[in-house]
Amino acid sequence: xHEDVARCVRAVQSKDARFDGWFFTGVISTGIYCRPSxxxxxxxxxxxxxxxxxxxxxxxxxxxCKRCRPDASPGSxxxxxxxxxxxxxxxxxxxxxxxxxGVPGLAARLGYSVRQIQRQLLAExxxxxxxxxRAQRAQTARLLIETTSVAMSDVAFAAGFASxxxxxxxxxxxxxxxxxxxxxxxxxxxxxxxxxxxxxLPFRAPLCPDNLFGHLAATAVPGVExxxxxxxxxxxxxxxxxxxxxLRPQPEYIDCRLTLTDLRDLSAAITRCRxxxxxxxxxxxxxxxxxxxxxxxxxxxxxxxxxxPRTVDAAEFAVRAVLGQQVSTAxxxxxxxxxxxxxxxxxxxxxxxxxxxxxxxxxxxELDPETLAFPQARRKTITTLIGALxxxxxxxxxxxxxxxxxxxxxxxxxxxxxxxxxxAMRALxxxxxxxxxxxxxxxxxxxxxxxxxxxxxxxxxxAWRPWRxxxxxxxxxxxxxxxxxxxx
Length: 488
Description:
Layout: H1 5-13, E1 24-27, E2 32-34, E3 48-51, H2 54-59, E4 63-64, H3 78-81, H4 85-94, H5 97-110, H6 114-125, H7 129-147, H8 152-158, H9 164-175, H10 179-185, E5 197-201, H11 209-218, E6 225-228, E7 231-238, E8 241-249, E9 254-260, H12 266-277, H13 283-290, H14 297-302, H15 314-323, H16 329-343, E10 345-346, E11 356-357, H17 361-364, H18 376-390, H19 402-410, H20 417-428, H21 439-448, H22 454-460, H23 468-476
Helix pairs in contact: 4-5, 7-9, 7-10, 8-9, 15-18, 15-20, 19-20
């Protein structure tokens, strides 16, 4: 995108917010970089330089604009859409892998050498993994500076900086202000509740919250998730501790209230919440393609901007997908709640009714299969899955190879096409995942006059690629089900 100069210039001159996150504009006359929708008067074309990432703009010597805050724009959708090395690397960097494990750890997870990773990222993004991670640390630092009263030395280490001096230098270089000046500028903000962080999660319009929050609320596991006072709330298992998040849809952003046991988890928590709500999607590109189908066009026109509800924990979702095989939503919630009560880690939630973290694979490995109210075959399915997850035999991380993971899942007993594609859609984030055997999809296809057999529907749905997971959301919307409605 950033190499198409004419298109970038048009986006900047029209202040088109649809391109926020796709590219960044460096202005050589001022030394700042902006998002395309920056409200200031557009610079002269000869002064514009375009970059594929905030890190690349920073490496080129530009500092972030104080008006449009380009460092806080929605993420580029292509990193969530792509299954190649760069896409996988970017998802892992966003999840904080470089901060926790370094570039060698990133390379090991991807199965490539450090040199290969650096070369690929430099070629596509104009910045290597360290620079990309540094840009993310700067944004995390800014959030902590502006939304908390935490001492600056604690902010530095919570954001992932190795020293206070590096923290000060980076903030000054990226934002053109020292940390204390950033805090002073934000002093009029609305304070969050004690112990919590109040954030705004940006997204690309349009966004239809009905299926997104309706699905999360309808499938919520008691003790782990709840819908309370117009917000979806849940517990989070994070690298350094745990947290509780409340997510409330607003017309122009998602209101996010986070309570963390360790501030070092702020960046990872934000990334996982954005992933859960699919906030970095490009709804215009998705809907434009789906509207080309005369059957889907009225559905898209009625409620554009549907997202794919994902998960904050891929292993948790895989277990819940098995619990939901061939049973009702209510029954699946009941089975999951029993596992949570028996094996989950207790947490405090003074602001609501959350009680536990969903148990991880290591904790679930201790369960007695005889306590599961399932047929013998289903017990084998879930215990085999848990064993594979606990042993690290299946990679469900955001940096996983979607095709390899599908193959690994398909080899497990009881994992048919529906379960594999459901995990691929909700946990792995494959935008083209498609489960033609799903009853909701088949009923919708029949009612809309589409082919109703799985093979015929798959052939027909080829025109929806690479957005079949989004087409599923529109198909499900034709049914009278609670997951299609925003809770009251």
